[in-house]
Write a structure and sequence with these properties.
single chain, about 800 residues, alpha+beta, Agglutinin, subunit A, Hepatocyte Growth Factor, 5 domains, six-stranded mixed beta sheet, five-stranded antiparallel beta sheet, about 25% helix, globular, disordered N terminus, serine/threonine-protein kinase, transferase, transmembrane helix, transmembrane, protein serine/threonine kinase activity
């Protein structure tokens, strides 16, 4: 037992007391300073980047801080970061793509109530929408949410409504929010990946590359419920709770590996590599650990290696150019690879020659390039698949599934990945005249080793006794064809006997469709439309009626005409509807197929079709302002660009006109009837369609010339719509004296515009642009739109732009 004698106990106690008092005083001083300087930002105050401390506000619990975050030697962003992480991990940034100068820039809480980030030259880089309100202070909450509130504590603006790449616990994910990845590790700028609710109410990851765009999560090859999702809840809401659980209305659910642990700081971040990851913070070390991720295999992420390249595991993932290609920009794989010097010219010469023997194929086993298929054929032999690729000038390569004979011709080599889990064999098409064909017998410079030499019989790769090889090859092909034909005959006889006993359509196609959409019966739709009382419009394929479902949703019900090809058109539309989704395309919710009754149920557009607005001479609709017209032009261009270049099936609309452009409550355009036309494989030798589609005035000249119909036919129609949109009236009213053909009126208008656009004087725009706007429009945008329109209605379709290039031009002028 220890005892104290004399004055030892009082002295020890006094020492402890003095030390405790000192610590308490320092804590009180620190708290007082924090409350005095960093608890809130008052109206009328400002903080400069040149102040001693770059921290402006600290949350009461000390977990978060916001202020000027250094991103370069003399560049700063206004950001919120985790105070307790060792590297000041950023959770939110204002205007991430526009850092401010380190000298003279400031954050100011203006007297008008707006919180603004001002660059050194006085330019407002970013601001809140709280101008002319009772905003009195800005506070950083314990949740990491920066809010601007009035004197009564009511929230007027919050950072939770505009996330960057990170979602914090209890921060809602809604239809109006999205996460955008950073462009690279440690950089603040916007990258190529987005996490958002798509038009089908699904939380998705999309790659928005410089040349193409594609959703890659959830797996686009599966139906929504194959991915464990549902499309029925349009409320679109998701949230990560404080225990590490994420739940959303589309039934996306996942949890952190340390879920349930209390007082753990977490964040859900869309990283620069396109992977969505959930992190937890170790409070002792200040380091983050991954507790969940969307992809365990990085190579499944689209665009990770760019075009003409492969993502390979060795064992870590790495990128490699295909044979005969080299990196476009060393150090940046997102730019992909391109042909080496002179190879492009040789390729084009071979592709344009009448002979198909200028190419050879290099086989790369266990390799898959997702998407961008020119077409898909029924089971064929390997030789037939090669022949199909040789006969198609746009075919860059093909994939072949051994055993089942599936053949996929590729128009673009993107999202390539090599793994033993893939059963595809990939065949790269190379011109013989290049030195790369000689590399096939040598050791390749990358990981894609060719283990088996197999090529078209005319290839120089074949060595030894060629006649024996050819005989054996053709013998195996003949046997394969025989087996395939016998199988098809057996299945055909069985199907004929089975379907012959069923008067109604009960095929696999409808089974797949009915599992993807809601299938209505005719009585339901008859009740919803009040016996088809209110007609919204009609066209060649049928009439459209307004309806209200049992859940009070307004819908448009299209009753297809019962014509000879009605069933074929109906099935054509339904077969592609599951693979086509875009915000500027009308969304289909369901269908009805009962005997001769075939109907489609789609979303309802509150403001009707564009033709009603343009033809409004009675003042029934508000006059479209220029910003609305420009947005309509841009939205329609985006929708057509998606149909022509981005969706899994390349689609030519063939009837682009104001009647088929619907406007929702916000006047956002949505293209209708895109599923009622023939699908045309991009770049293939498309046969001329026997029946002319479209409407007088919008039909491209190639219809009359019996030329193959491509997406350029839609470009022509879009150009006419642009002219109508700017001019404010229909093309039918441009005819002179009633004797001129409407096609000639379009040509005459385009010729006049060419001359006027060539001059520097733009005063004539006042006479051409819709007079109902009273001259209130953007001259630069109007001139650009008219230039695009004139180029779109060129008689020579080769001189018309692509819809993707139109989108780029229009986006460049968005204010």
């Amino acid at each position: 037992m220890i005892t104290f004698t004399g004055n030892s106990l009082p002295m020890a106690m006094r020492g402890v007391h003095i030390f405790t008092t000192l610590i308490s005083f320092l804590l009180m001083l620190t708290t007082a300073l924090a409350e005095d300087k960093k608890s809130y930002l008052a109206r009328g105050s400002s903080v400069s980047t040149e102040d001693d401390t770059k921290t402006i506000l600290v949350s009461p619990n000390g977990d978060f801080a916001c202020g000027f975050y250094k991103v370069a030697t003399n560049a700063f962003t206004f950001s919120i970061w985790f105070s307790r992480s060792s590297e000041k991990t950023v959770a939110w940034t204002a205007k991430r793509d526009a850092p401010v100068n380190g000298k003279g820039s400031k954050l100011t809480f203006r007297k008008d109530g707006g919180l603004a980030l001002v660059d050194y030259n006085g330019t407002v880089v970013w601001s809140t929408n709280t101008t002319a309100t009772g905003a009195s202070r800005a506070e950083l909450q314990n949740s990491g949410n920066l809010i601007v509130m009035d004197s009564e504590g009511q929230c007027l603006w919050e950072s939770f409504d505009s996330p960057t790449d990170t979602l914090l616990p209890l921060q809602p994910m809604t239809r109006d929010t999205k996460l955008v990845s950073a462009s690279a590790r440690g950089l603040p700028y916007s990258g190529l990946y987005t996490f958002f609710f798509d038009s089908n109410n699904l939380l998705s990851l999309i790659y928005n590359g410089p040349e193409t765009s594609s959703i890659y999560w959830p797996n686009p090859a599966f139906l929504s419920w194959d991915n464990g999702r549902t499309t029925y809840y349009s409320s679109r809401h998701g949230v990560l709770d404080s225990d590490g659980w994420f739940i959303a209305t589309d039934q996306l659910n996942f949890e952190a590996s340390d879920h349930g642990q209390k007082d753990v700081m977490r964040r859900l971040t869309l990283d620069y590599d396109g992977n969505l990851r959930l992190y937890s913070l170790n409070m002792t070390t200040g380091k983050w650990s991954v507790t969940w991720m969307a992809f365990c295999q990085v190579c499944e992420i689209h665009g990770v290696c760019g075009k003409n390249s492969l993502c390979i595991y060795k064992p870590d993932p790495r990128c490699s150019c295909l044979e005969g290609f080299e990196m476009v920009k060393p150090g940046d794989w997102s730019q992909g690879c391109s042909y080496k010097a002179n190879a492009t010219l040789i390729w084009n010469n071979n592709a344009n020659s009448k002979s198909n023997h200028g190419f050879i194929f290099k086989k790369i086993p266990h390799t898959d390039f997702y998407g961008y298929d020119l077409n898909y054929s029924k089971p064929v032999t390997l030789w037939q698949c090669k022949r199909m690729c040789l006969d198609n000038a746009d075919c860059q390569a093909f994939e072949y599934h051994k055993g089942i004979g599936k053949c996929f011709l590729k128009a673009l080599l993107f999202n390539g990945r090599k793994s033993q889990d893939h059963y595809n064999d990939f065949y790269l098409k190379l011109p013989k005249a290049t030195p790369y064909s000689q590399l096939l017998a040598s050791k390749p410079s990358h990981a894609c080793v060719m283990t088996e030499k197999e090529a078209y019989p005319s290839s120089q790769m074949l060595t030894g006794n060629n006649s024996n090889i050819k005989f054996g090859y053709f013998l195996s092909s003949a046997l394969t064809l025989l087996v395939v034909e016998m199988t098809l005959i057996t299945v055909g006889c069985w199907a004929a006997n089975k379907w012959g006993r069923r008067p109604e359509i009960q095929d696999e196609g409808y089974t797949i469709i009915s599992s993807q959409f809601r299938r209505f019966n005719y009585k339901e739709l008859e009740k919803a439309t009040d016996c088809f009382q209110e007609m919204l419009g009609s066209g060649g394929s049928g009439a459209v009626y307004k309806g209200i479902l049992d859940d009070k949703r307004k819908v448009a019900v299209k009753k297809l005409n019962d014509v000879i090809h009605g069933e074929q058109e109906f099935r054509s539309e339904l077969s592609i509807i599951g693979r086509v989704y875009h915000m500027n395309l009308v969304r289909i919710w369901g269908f009805c197929a009962e005997k001769t009754n075939k109907l489609l149920v789609s979303e309802f557009a509150e403001n009707g079709s564009l033709d009603r607005v343009l033809s409004d001479n009675l003042g029934l609709f508000p006059v479209l302002q220029w910003s609305q017209r420009y947005n309509i032009a841009l939205g329609v261009a985006k929708g057509l660009a998606y149909l022509h270049h981005e969706c899994l099936e390349w689609i030519v609309h063939c009837d682009v006109k104001p009647e088929n452009i619907l406007l929702d409550k916000d006047f956002e355009p949505k293209i209708a009837d895109f599923g009622l036309v023939k699908l045309v494989s991009r770049g293939s030798n498309t046969e001329t369609q026997s029946k002319v589609h479209g409407t007088r005035g919008y039909i491209a000249p190639e219809w009359a010339l019996n030329l193959p119909i491509t997406g350029k036919a839609d470009v022509y129609s879009y150009g006419v719509v642009l002219l109508e949109l700017v001019k404010g009236n229909r093309v039918s009213r441009w005819v002179v004296d009633g004797e001129e053909e409407v096609e000639m009126a379009v040509k005459r208008t385009a010729d006049v515009l060419k001359e006027k656009l060539a001059s520097e004087d733009q005063s004539w725009l006042l006479d051409f642009v819709d007079c109902r706007m009273n001259g209130e429009f953007n001259y630069s945008q109007a001139a650009t739109v008219l230039k695009i329109a004139v180029s779109c209605v060129e008689e020579d379709r080769r001189r018309r732009p692509s819809m993707s290039s139109v989108v780029e031009i229009l986006l460049s002028l968005v204010e």
